[in-house]
Amino acid sequence: MATITPDSMTYRRLGSAGVQVSVLSLGSWLTFGSQIANETAEELMKTAYDAGVNFFDNAEAYAHGRSEIVMGEILQKMQWDRSTYLVSSKVYWGGEKPNQIGLSRKRVVEACNAALKRLQVEYLDFYFCHRPDKNTPIEETVWAMNILIQQGKVLYWGTSEWSAQEIMEAYSVARQYNLIPPQMEQPQYNMFHRERVEVEYRHLYSRIGLGITTWSPLASGLISEKYLGEASAFARLNRPGLEWLKETVMKNNALETIKHLAPIAKDLGVTLPQLGIAWCLANPDVSTVILGATSVEQLRENLQSLKVLPSLTPETRARIEAVLGNTPAIPQY
Questions:
Q1: Are 17 and 183 in contact (CB under 8 A)?
Q2: Cα(290)–Cα(269) distance, rounded to whole angstroms?
Q3: How far apart are alpha carbons 227 and 126 in whole angstroms?
Q4: Averaged pLDDT for residues 275-285
Q5: How far apart are the first and last CA of the chain?
Q6: With 80 as the cut, is the pLDDT of residue 230 above it?
Q7: What is the pLDDT of residue 242?
Q8: β-sheet bridge partners, residue 292
Q9: H/E/C letters for each residue in 228-260?
Q10: Which of 2-16, 177-191, 273-287 has the lowest mean pLDDT?
Q11: Which residues carry out catalysis?
């Protein structure tokens, strides 16, 4: 299988926006500033960039800000043309004291300024509200994001793990006051987590031009050969503090499903991770699939998922759906 290069990488619009995002991007959750050495993080970003990846995803909460510091130092060292890459941050969890959590105007503005310093950039291409804030009026958050865009500190703003109703509320407020509405959402999306992307948001793609930058395409590593052996250490899922994640991805007899997906990957001559990522990419509503990696070898393998797309014929996809047995039902109304 040929190596992915800038010439072979493909790009999609971020929903209705004009900005082009590589269909595969690189995220830093659980890795940068925590699980991997800074030198490895640098190698990952360079490998991704050389392959045509132009979006690097981050958040203030990742490694308590260290993830953004590491990424910022790498960006400074690489000195890539700023027009050739996109970088994001997310706001919500900034600390435990009053006004260090949530989406108030104070929180949003201060968090943005802090992220810019850590990432050592003049502006954020994408700024996500990491979770909805029940304690702050949505009007306040929308106005805060609009101010940051007017100041040139943010180019596009969006949400992460918001319901369709919450996104529409923010969109409606923006339209009411002639402000810039949210452009993108960052939901979890993989073979075991489909309902929100495929059903709940289905009208938002055409109605408001919502783009989505999906995370966890491999269900936090569950969709891989390492869980097929009896001696599996459950890797990331066994890390302290991630018990919730393990419970989420291991329910519904997921390991049995993985065992039945393995022959399909083998017949296509690809790995399980490549199959899982390509399956996400096959959804035309997905703007980009965010990859995570702890080694260059792993990243290179996963970048090859783009080459698997032509193999996902209607027959192959039907075979996958039969194994998954979780095709979401689309309401008839």
A1: yes
A2: 23
A3: 34
A4: 98
A5: 44
A6: no
A7: 64
A8: none
A9: CCCCCCCHHHHCCCCHHHHHHHHCCCHHHHHHH
A10: 2-16
A11: 62
Query: pLDDT for 76-125, tens place per residue?
Result: 999 999 999 999 999 999 999 999 999 999 999 999 999 999 999 999 99
Of 3.30.70.380, 3.10.20.30, 3.20.20.100, 2.40.30.10, the CATH number of 11-222+280-307 is 3.20.20.100
CA 243 to chain centre: 21
The 10s digit of each residue's pLDDT in 34-79 is 999 999 999 999 999 999 999 999 999 999 999 999 999 999 999 9
The angle, 0 to 180 degrees and rounded to 10, between the axes of the packed helices 272-281 and 254-268 is 90
Residue with the two structure tokens 């958040």: 59
Q: 202-205 long-range contacts, Cβ below 8 Å, gap at least 24?
A: 202/285, 202/330, 203/164, 204/164, 204/167, 204/168, 205/15, 205/285
- b/e 208-231 (16+ beta carbons within 10 angstroms → b): bbbbbbbbbbbbbbbbbeebeeee
Find tokens 């706001």 and name the residue.
91
pLDDT tens for each residue of 176-213: 999 999 999 999 999 999 999 999 999 999 999 999 99
Q: Which residue has the tokens 């690489």?
A: 78
Angle (deg, nearest 10), helices 38-50 and 296-303: 20
Q: In the chain, what are the domain boundaries?
A: 11-222+280-307
Q: State how far the Cα of 78 lies from the Cα of 45, in Å rounded to an integer.
A: 9
Among residues of the chain, what percentage have pLDDT more than 70? 92
Contact 132, 163 (CB under 8 A): yes
**Hey, CA dihedral for 82, 91, 11, 191, is it positive or negative?**
positive
Residue-averaged pLDDT of the chain: 93
Helices 138-150 and 105-119, packing angle to 10 deg: 40
Which amino acid appears at position 215 of this protein? Answer: W
pTM (predicted TM-score): 0.94
Looking at residue 245, what is its pLDDT?
Answer: 60
